[in-house]
Amino acid sequence: MCGIIGILGSAPAAPRLVEALKRLEYRGYDSAGVATLEGGVIKRRRAPGKLANLERELAAAPLAGVTGIGHTRWATHGAPTTANAHPHATDRVAIVHNGIIENFRALREELIAKGHKFESETDSEVIAHLITAGLDKGEKPEAAAIGAVRRLEGAFGIAVLFAGEEDVLIGARKGSPLAVGFGDGEMFLGSDAIAVSPFTTRVMFLEEGDIAILSRAGAKVLDADGAVAQRQIHIFSGGVASVEKGNHRHFMQKEIYEQPETTGRTITRYVNAYDERVEMPDLDGVDLAADNAIIIGCGTAHYAGRVAEYWLEQIAGITVETDIASEFRYRKPAFGKKSFGVFVSQSGETADTLAALRYCKENALKTLAVVNVPESTIWREADARLPTLAGPEIGVASTKAFTAQLSALAALAIAVGRARGALSSQEEGRLVHALMETPRLITDALTAEPQIEAIAHELAHARDVLYLGRGVHYPIALEGALKLKEISYIHAEGYAAGELKHGPIALIDEDTPGVVVAPHDALFEKTLSNMQEVAARGAKLIVITDPAGAAAVKDIAKHIILAPACDAFVAPLVYSVPIQLLAYLTAVQKGTDVDQPRNLAKSVTVE
Ligand code: F6R
Known about the structure:
The chain is about 40% helix and about 25% strand. The chain has 19 helices and 27 strands. The protein has an eight-stranded antiparallel β-sheet with strand order 3-2-4-1-10-9-11-15. A seven-stranded antiparallel β-sheet has the order 5-6-7-8-12-13-14. The chain has a five-stranded parallel β-sheet with strand order 19-18-20-21-22, with helices on both faces. About 55% of the residues are buried.
């Protein structure tokens, strides 16, 4: 949600804080701020809006000092103003916070009654005052921070800077992730490994309830019970290069074009190409011969789960229930005995998905995480995990993470089919072979960009767009509509093509284009009938199909986006590419902020 960085360094901190915040801006971009110690005194610069505004502030009034904290905000409590921007500070303490402090009102009233003066409308500011109250009582920084953190209810990742303390930085984590970076005589705190990636590859991830006390000599970690804890140091391979745009205009474009590689990497993790067999890692008690499964996620990750629902039912013959995490967690559903839960998440930190996972674990359901960010909370709390190997995804609209999720879920469907005896080895070989061809097919699908660009010029004028698909392409239509609305701000809806007559067809007129995801598969003729119904009512059809489909729709389609012919099993992966490009190029045409669309944040760590 919000991005956090903290530095105990040996070089000027302000430019390094900004450098880290650039990598974190994808988490939130309503405002940004930094604080450093100048001769032991806390000095801040903050600005509403994008990071560029903060950079201007710093250029006009630079900050000295080698110790500091920084923040990029996605607003929850209080508008994105300078006063509400982090760091929040007293003259003794500055803090940055990611998450929500649920009991902030009671704490704030208590502190106001004791004479503390608040400057913002945020829940976060109370943390700075609580710690200050401890210091005012004569406590040392560590005791004051621990005392304050123990009183906070809600979710938080925080970093704390103390006036007069050049060699102390304290971080605490409950509900929101926090990572510690180890440099050479320098230490770092970050809301994720990407934050500290410009400075070090050695990263330690704090666990729930941990408090880390950093000095330049290292970190002491206390667990939720206050006992000293050892946490493993990982080498973060995400690297700085993968979070640069390279020659691309936007991260989203770069990430769309990375998909041959990212799907290839993910697929080869789960298949033995030589034997054409799926090879799953140890799934720690998750019984793949189960009779049913639930698949939970939010947004795009949920749609990946919806595709997997079709695969698991068709390939493995099991009953699958998919749901949006925010609904599932409050439904209190019951589970069958031979069942497992799959939790799909790019960030591994989505609050609702995490809550759904915890609910399942409390009810003795084995859990399997399909997660992109290693060592994220969902990754660590699940019984077993199928990593997606998309690498850092910076564009707020998910693209390469989605196809990596599909890649892992496709392998899972084959593994479940084999475990249940529902799949002959010949059929497994055919499916694995098709999966292995996917990266090449995605490369082919990318060549449609010039054709899609021409269509995007037209689509950019639409007010409403309908996306239609059938079977496994219904979730792809839903994903196409989501992509378009989130980055181009054009209203779009995805429908199952067969559902159109039951209401939505009333929306059709010549100003409402229909985007149809329609490979020439077993359901093509059915979708063709639906296309005819829509075309007859004046809609301009943009049909995404293969050469055989193109021949069949040439008289009713206004535009055809050609996708390569492919095995029906992997078509959802291949057809994801044109729907992503269509949304991307339309948004570029409209001139919206593609990588940081309004109101959104990359990682939704609040409910
Ligand atoms: C849309 C998008 C979101 C995320 C959703 C879940 O492009 O990115 O819908 O898919 O917020 O996030 P993760 O996968 O991090 O759990």
